[in-house]
């Protein structure tokens, strides 16, 4: 039984294969070096940015996409909010509700200063810029004057757009309408206890009762019975 012998490679062929593998290793090393350099540069750039830069970027992108989808739904005659709810699962809805309660807990009424601060934050949150590119351009152009401080002269720097003026007018009108809705005069109850000296003091006492009434009921009863210590 004869067997065919395997031909042996010559020295020149072996040398050529070694050189080929060596060139491949050199190429892979150069690619790894270039990739590492890019990663170092990118990491350095990220470290120089604000800590919440990524979150702000994602939020800006979400706002732009949401606005675009809302405009497309409006052109097609669709209810965008209802369309979003149809694509929302029960688990996601529960998660968003928990997140909303955790982020915006109802702290009740403490004083008028805190109530004004909460209203200001709520109004500012609803005034997000629609054109983020123009927003960033103005921010870079104006520098420190973009966020005006007590000693900043902004006259002539900002030019209000008609859309921004209309939004401000609408916001003020909405506040007036809401205030008129909840500030209408209530009917007087002759059987209710008189614990106020004027109408403003009566409203203040009602706010205190809503926030702290459940914690002070027993104290009031003890004072009325004369058994308070």
UniProtKB/TrEMBL annotation:
Transmembrane segments: none annotated. GO terms for cellular component: catalytic step 2 spliceosome; post-mRNA release spliceosomal complex; Prp19 complex. InterPro entries: mRNA_splic_SYF2. Keywords: mRNA processing, mRNA splicing, Nucleus, Spliceosome. Residues 30-47 have a biased composition (Basic and acidic residues). It comes from Dendroctonus ponderosae. GO terms for biological process: mRNA splicing, via spliceosome. Belongs to the SYF2 family. This is Pre-mRNA-splicing factor SYF2. The keyword Nucleus applies. Pfam families: SYF2. Its main location: nucleus. It is found in: Nucleus. May be part of a spliceosome complex. Involved in pre-mRNA splicing. Residues 30-52 are annotated as: Disordered.
